Amino acid sequence: MRSYAKSIEYYERTRKSLAGGVSSNVRYAATPVPLFFERGEGARLFDVDGNVHIDYVLGNGPAILGHAPKPVIEAVAATLARGQVYAAQHPGETALAERLCRLLPGVEVVRFASSGTEAVLMAFRLARAFTGRTKILKFEGHYHGWSDQAFISARPALNEAGPADCPVPVAGSPGMPQSVLDDTVVAGWNDLDLLAAAFERHKGEIAAIIMEPVMVNGGPTPPKPGYLEGARALCREHGALFICDEVITGFRAGLRGAQGLYGVTADLTVYAKAVAAGFPLALVGGRRDVMDTLLDKGVMHGGTYNGNVQSMAAALAALDVLEADDGAVYRDLDARGTRLMRGLAALGAKHRVAVKVQGLPAIFQVYFTEGPAPTNYREAVACDRDKALAFHRALQEEGIRTNQNAKWFLSTAHDDAIIDETLAAAGRAMAAVA
Ligand SMILES: Cc1ncc(COP(=O)(O)O)c(C=O)c1O
User: Fold this and answer.
1) How far away, in angstroms, is 217 Cα from ligand 1 center?
2) Is the dihedral of CA 113, 115, 118, 122 positive or negative?
3) What percentage of residues in the chain have a pLDDT greater than 70?
4) CATH of domain 70-321
């Protein structure tokens, strides 16, 4: 058994001064307590007890180049002595904005922020100002940050969520006002009939729909063939904007995100996480006429740290790596991720544990289910979570760090030797679950 004595000691001490002992509620979930780490390097994290973890959490997505990627930290280090925040513009912003507009599908103009949560709020405000409508349609199981306006039906208990064909908006936290639920329409994802019906029920009221183009937070699930195109068309038909939340899929599903992968273009897109390889950066990008409401209609967007020198430098350096040879790193990432997914599925078969491994090569989940792989949130939560948790815990004992649902993020630092080491460890963990 690995020892976590020092993490436990730190946690008890930290709880006295830091609320709950953590800086984000999602970190409570760790076993036996929220762990304390000293350092990360490449694919590995080193905790205060001296345990080494091959990390498949990767900060929940940002560390696409692994921990402390040399080109990024060197580029950031070179800027440190020039200052951090000017409350003014600087050439790094220009360079990054131009580069993103050149690269990203449907992105004619961008605005920088620091977190995905606030960038989503900006997209909502832009959509409401542009359309003159109030309601936002979101999908069950999709997470768009923890704000009052967005943290609705992200992980609802099914006994509170209403019927699958017409879900009830469920507040994700105490302290959220009823008004945000009144302004939100919730639909089941991956079913065009359900979306069309929701548009009919709220004719002329919906300013925008927002979705993770590949559902990740509610359980990695690809869109059905034609679903994204159909949703895009329904938005046009009903005069609503299509907002893609590529906070996770951006720079992870491929160089041009899920929209590049599936050939669909949103009106507005939110990116964060992998764009700056671990430094805090988010952005909204999209149609010039919609983004221009910032100026034309005086739509307010602010933020002290927006466009800060180090985040711009980090993103530019990360893009140098990610864009080289038109995204050659993604070909390796895809090959390794596919091998890992297939290897994990084979381990399930070998140990007679019914699993489906689903998602994208750089972000996937091992579902414990006798049935087919899930196509939406309700099917994802019907899979066996106790077994997923048992697998996660057994993996941790083997030095493999995954998310509690046995969700895996991959980085370019996970080379073939690390994948081999992981599969050997996962074999022992799968045997323990069996
Ligand atoms: C799809 C998606 N959107 C938005 C967010 C919120 O981003 P942040 O945590 O940077 O506020 C997240 C965070 O996990 C996310 O996964």
Assistant:
1) 9
2) positive
3) 100
4) 3.40.640.10
Using DSSP, state whether 173 is helix, strand or coil: coil
Hey, which residues are catalytic here? 143, 245, 273
| CA gap 237, 209 in Å, rounded | 13
| Nearest CA owner, ligand 1 atom 9 | 116
Place of tokens 């976590």: 4
- The residues of the chain that CATH labels 3.90.1150.10 are 5-68+327-433
* pTM > 0.85: yes or no: yes
Q: What does the chain come to in residues? A: 434
Question: Which protein residues are within 6 Å of ligand 1, measured from CB?
Answer: 60, 115-117, 120, 143-145, 212, 217, 245, 247-248, 272, 282
- Beta bridge pairs of residue 213: none
Q: Closest residue (by CA) to atom 13 of ligand 1?
A: 145
Distance CA 393, CA 406 (A): 9
Q: CATH code for 5-68+327-433?
A: 3.90.1150.10
Place of tokens 């409570």: 28
Residues 6+ apart with CB under 8 A from 9: none
Residue bearing the CA closest to ligand 1, atom 14: 145
Q: Give the pLDDT confidence score for residue 404 in this predicted structure.
A: 85
Ligand 1 atom closest to 114 (CA): 10
Q: Taking 90 as the threshold, does the pLDDT of residue 156 lie above it?
A: yes
DSSP state at residue 168: P
Q: Which of 423, 434, 427, 421 is nearest to 368 (CA)?
A: 434
Ranges in the chain annotated CATH 3.40.640.10: 70-321
